[in-house]
Amino acid sequence: MTMSDTVVLDVDGLRMRYGSVDVLHDVTFQIRHGEVLALLGPNGAGKTTTIEILEGFRARSAGRVQVLGADPAHGDERWRARLGVVLQSWRDHGNWRVREFLDHLGGYYAGYATAGIPRPWDTGELIRTVGLEGQAGKKIKTLSGGQRRRLDVAVGIVGRPELLFLDEPTASFDPQARSDFHGLVGELVAAQETTVLLTTHDLHEAEKLADRIVVLSGGRIVADGTAGELARRIAGEDEVRWLLNGQRFVQKTADSTRFAQELFARYGDDVQELEIHRASLEQTYLALVRQAESTPEATR
Ligand SMILES: Nc1ncnc2c1ncn2[C@@H]1O[C@H](COP(=O)(O)OP(=O)(O)OP(=O)(O)O)[C@@H](O)[C@H]1O
To answer: Which of 51, 66, 227, 234 has its CA 20 to 30 A from that of 30?
Structure first.
């Protein structure tokens, strides 16, 4: 995947209030072309609200938002054709057959093709890409859960979106379907250079797919960086364990690679059973959320 410096999504000081309750406070982040960004956060943190504002489905209370160069509150059809949204699961159109349904939806995008981006995606090629060749002639209502999710993805990308929104894409997937889906998104990003904004509660998914992670807690961004950067900042140090002349040692260090090099330089083959434990994204995430939740409102 190539990431460029072009900012495709720019959120600055975003606020959202439902009635008298503020649910987003001064949310600021950017996404660059070709980047996969995972938006993480506990239930009620404001992820779906943020995504809906960015998609143009919900009006914000304040702040500046630019998505593919336009304000989503005023995005026209041409702008919308450049976005892809993978919804929770396609329940309608059960009597349509997979190929005719995708053909039909693709028709909406034909007028929005550009010199660089042929729209829509050729239906046969799209069906192969999402792995539904065997179901192309079947009615949607006869598809299994995993096959439906593949269809959801096909619906989301039929217009070859420049920016793809995935809101909890693998919730309720079995491990095989989840793994297939991750492969599919990885291929899409690599081949099409699509930019992706993903929300998930699955930290392995975030670690696997995302170049960058933004953590939202109580409507505020509490962290923004790569999984490695967040781990180093929050969990701090790696733990190195080894056995030397029959004795066990444990050492915390900020630079475990250098520590191990020095250990071998000093003791050579006498160092045995070396283990390096890095903080997992899960530990980091839980620490971040705990820290945010224990900070008094007035000091944030
Ligand atoms: N239409 C609405 N009217 C009033 N309050 C709402 C509305 N939609 C969401 N909220 C509130 O806004 C807050 C943020 O909700 P949101 O759905 O954006 O969170 P989330 O991070 O997506 O949560 P989850 O992980 O549970 O999906 C919550 O406190 C929720 O109760």
So the answer is: 234
